[in-house]
Amino acid sequence: MINLKKFKYEPGEHEAETASNSYLMSLIAIIMGLPLPIINLIATLIFYLGNRKGTYFVRWHCTQALLSQTSMLFINSYGFWWTISIIFSDENISNNYIAYIFATLIFNVTEFIATIYTAIKTRNGIHVEWWFYGTLTTLICKSGK
After folding, report:
1. By percentage, how much of the chain surpasses pLDDT 90?
2. The Cα angle at residue 120 between residues 27 and 67, in degrees rounded to 5
3. Which runs of consecutive H residues, i.e. helices, occur in 33-55?
4. 64 close to 130: Cβ distance less than 8 angstroms
5. Residue 97, Cα to own-chain centre: how many angstroms?
6. Eight-class DSSP state of 53
7. What angle do CA 63, 64, 66 make, to 5 degrees?
8. pLDDT tens digits, residue range 101-135?
9. Sign (positive/negative) of CA torsion 130, 122, 108, 33?
10. For the chain, is the Cβ count within 10 Å smaller at the N or the C terminus?
11. In 1-145, which ranges are E strands?
12. What is the Cα–Cα distance from 5 to 1, expressed in whole angstroms?
């Protein structure tokens, strides 16, 4: 799921810290806006916009964090609104609902652990590519040669 790769150059201390902070931003947003899935995406988007003109290492990791939060928004929003519809309507809790919430929980915990791991490795200047997001990030983020 996670690949450690050698980056094209050795990122400086400031670059590593800023890239690491792009992942930490989503973790901080989880604490502040847990019930609303959009809060994580907004926080990560603001951090991305503030660093989109940074070095390639920083831009790459800000983009990867943004992409992961975008997919989390869709997954968590569906579960959130499904839960709201159960609370405020006559809909019953079904096996499908329980399975979806369970899968969402596993996905969130996995993403949370991967985010912490990536923030630590990136802070040490190690380039971490997530499965799917890493390839997509490489396609989106231009190296600026």
Report:
1. 47
2. 50
3. 38-51
4. yes
5. 24
6. T
7. 65
8. 999 999 988 988 999 999 999 999 888 999 899 99
9. negative
10. C
11. 2-5, 127-130
12. 13
The first and second tokens of residue 15, run together, are 């670059």
Q: How many CA atoms lie within 13 A of 73 on its CB side?
A: 16
Residue 57's closest CA among 16, 95, 25, 89? 16
Domain boundaries, the chain: 2-140
The token pair at 41 is 């995406």
Using the 8-state DSSP alphabet, how is residue 132 labeled? T
For residues 19 and 59, give the distance between their C-alpha atoms in angstroms, rounded to a whole number.
8
Task: Write the pLDDT tens digit of every residue in 66-81.
Answer: 999 899 889 989 999 9
Task: Yes or no: say if 65 and 44 are a contact pair by the CB < 8 Å rule.
Answer: yes
Write the Ramachandran bin of 109: left for phi over 0, alpha for psi from -120 to 50, otherwise beta.
alpha
What's the CA gap between 20 and 12, in Å, rounded? 12
User: How many residues would you count in the chain?
Assistant: 145
